[in-house]
Design a protein that fits this description.
Shape of chain A: elongated
Distance between the termini of chain B: 49 Å
Strand content of chain A: 25-35%
Strand order of the largest sheet of chain B: 4-3-5-2-6-7-8
Number of helices of chain A: 2
Radius of gyration of chain A: 18 Å
Order of helices and strands of chain B: EHEHEHEHEEHHEHHEH
Oligomer: heterodimer
Largest sheet of chain A: 3 strands, mixed
Shape of chain B: globular
Strand order of the largest sheet of chain A: 2-1-5
Strand content of chain B: 15-25%
Structural class of chain A: alpha+beta
Order of helices and strands of chain A: HEHEEEE
């Protein structure tokens, strides 16, 4: 289950961001996951719950936005038929994945002391 | 402001919009530059446990014996078995024992490169951990992904593991000599591949009977880097890692060869 290594990278990234902003805590973490990212949202959540203790994410809730795969034709901008071969419905060219493979840390919320 | 007493704490949203595996991607780019600079074709060979990854590499070694220099890094959870088999087939091989990790990542490969004589190779086969899920997520710096699917694994495997097959530059249907015994429908496998790969390239191969090996050899030969190798003479340079750990962008020129034994 590679979701642990994803969470490890996520917590490290959040920690760096929190340190850069001089935050005293991280309260929320928002991640965008593509349906074809190879990361299973449920497993990522489980891994996050188990791994976050003792990290910068210890007190941060995790929000996942799962985005569907979107295919477009590089030739004419068309799309494939749902569930069929990955070729353009209009012109027959092989389509390309336009969205849906991302594993992105979108935003975090930090608690910062007033100076 | 703190909701309770109005003391000075305030919540600050920070837009990050960064790929979580950016560190791996940087390391993979670094590996890729090294492979490219040394004129080595690196192939990431993936597939289920038992798909026939090692057998395909053994057969490749028999075909290319005396004409090409092959090497392999073999990802394995617990044993040295694959590397031992490859060495017996005449392929210098180093095992990357991953412990509990279900996949190789670019850092593991980079580390292995420092302990393996790879720069004079024509081909470096990176035999990933047997797994149709996790290895698909990690770029290693390879020139191409080759995914093996044995004919007895089930015709619907491409639909069950779309991420892995979508990442494949080539799918090798292995053990085709078993088709009469297991009743596999190769046309159906290929139809299912077309539903997860926009432009599927598929070869039907048997490492045992030799069927399809010519097409496989042709496919890898076509991908060999053109032009003179930059690593024919050994350059000596210091490989200094001034960049912070994980930064991946080193301050040395690529196209050079790492001194042996460097850590």
């Amino acid at each position: 289950m590679h979701e642990y290594s994803i969470v490890e990278a996520l917590c490290a990234r959040v920690a760096a961001e929190a340190a850069a902003h001089g935050a005293r805590a991280v309260t929320s973490v928002r991640v965008r996951l593509g349906a074809l990212s190879g990361v299973e949202p449920g497993l990522l959540r489980t891994a996050y719950e188990m791994f976050r203790e003792g990290t910068a994410c210890a007190g941060a809730s995790l929000h996942l936005d799962v985005v569907p795969a979107r295919w477009t034709c590089p030739r004419c901008g068309g799309a494939p038929e749902a569930g069929a071969r990955l070729v353009c419905r209009a012109c027959g060219a092989p389509v390309r994945l336009a969205a849906g493979d991302e594993i992105v840390l979108e935003r975090i919320e930090l608690e910062v002391g007033d100076v | 402001m703190c909701d309770v007493c109005g003391c000075g704490d305030k919540a600050v949203p920070v837009e990050v919009r960064d790929r979580i595996l950016a560190g791996n991607e940087r390391q993979a780019r670094h590996n890729r530059q090294h492979f490219h600079g040394a004129g080595v074709l690196a192939l990431n060979v993936m597939g289920s446990p038992g798909a026939g990854k090692t057998a395909l590499l053994e057969a490749t070694a028999r075909r290319l014996a005396g004409t090409r220099r092959l090497g392999a890094l073999a990802g394995d959870l617990a044993t040295e078995n694959d590397a031992t088999r490859l060495r017996a087939a005449g392929v210098p091989a180093l095992s990357i024992t991953t412990g509990s990790a279900c996949h190789l990542d670019a850092e593991m490969v980079h580390h292995a490169l420092h302990h393996f004589d790879w720069t004079d190779l024509d081909y470096l086969f990176i035999e990933n951990v047997g797994n149709l899920v996790c290895p698909a997520v990690y770029d290693l710096g390879q020139a191409a992904n080759v995914v093996l699917l044995a004919v007895h694994e089930g015709e619907d495997k491409p639909l069950k593991y779309p991420v892995m097959f979508h990442k494949a530059d080539l799918v090798v249907l292995t053990k085709v000599d078993l088709v009469p015994f297991v009743g596999a429908d190769l046309a159906l496998i290929e139809e299912n591949l077309a539903r997860v790969m926009p432009d599927p390239r598929v070869l039907r191969v048997s490492a045992r009977s030799g069927e399809g090996l010519d097409a496989w050899i042709e496919w890898i030969e076509m991908r060999r880097p053109a032009g003179p190798r930059l690593s024919v003479t050994r350059h000596h340079h210091e490989h200094r890692h001034h960049a912070p750990p994980g930064a991946g962008e080193h301050d040395h020129e690529h196209g050079f060869v790492h001194p042996r034994g460097h850590h």
